[in-house]
Amino acid sequence: MFGSKDDLRQKYCDIYTRMQADDPFPDRLDQMIANVIKMHPEYQPLLSDSAKSLDSEFGPDKGQANPFLHMGMHLAVWEQIATNRPDGVRDEHLRLIKLSNEHQAEHQMMEILGIILWEAQRDNVPPDESKYLEAIRKI
């Protein structure tokens, strides 16, 4: 979808710039990115500075989360909910919303998704959808 880390980060910055100009978003992905940017005003100053966005490094050793990874994880969860993959994830999302709120529910799902993706990468296997869904069900 994007050629590099810089391409992806530039896309977020460009969409934020378009948001400031009230440009429409006919593309579904652009609209989704705009929505996740709206949810996270704490990332907007970074997105207003393309050079800083492209040059910044994030990681646990730097004491800060990667805002681009965070926003991308929201997008991944939204796609899971939209497609109901793994089967049953949409119902689990609705259940979690009832326990807290939509944003918190997504963060809980993202935490589990991150673990599942890390384990898959570590073990060089596809992500285990059933393990992911089971962990969400335990919340």
Task: Provide a descriptive summary of the structure in words.
The chain is built from 8 helices and no strands. The chain has 2 domains: 1-60, no CATH class; 84-139, no CATH class. The N and C termini lie far apart (32 Å). Helix 6 (89-99) crosses helix 7. The chain has helices at 5-20, 28-39, 44-47, 50-55, 67-83, 89-99, 102-123, 129-137.
Q: Quick summary of this structure?
A:
The chain has 139 residues and is an all-alpha fold. The protein is built from 8 helices and no strands. The protein folds into 2 domains: 60 residues, no CATH class; 56 residues, no CATH class.
Number of helices: 8
> Beta fraction of the residues?
under 5%
The N- and C-terminal alpha carbons lie at a distance of: 32 Å
The average pLDDT is 94
Topology readout:
Elements: H1 5-20, H2 28-39, H3 44-47, H4 50-55, H5 67-83, H6 89-99, H7 102-123, H8 129-137
Helix pairs in contact: 1-2, 2-5, 5-7, 6-7, 7-8
Q: What features would you highlight for this structure?
A:
139 residues; mainly alpha; 2 domains; 8 helices
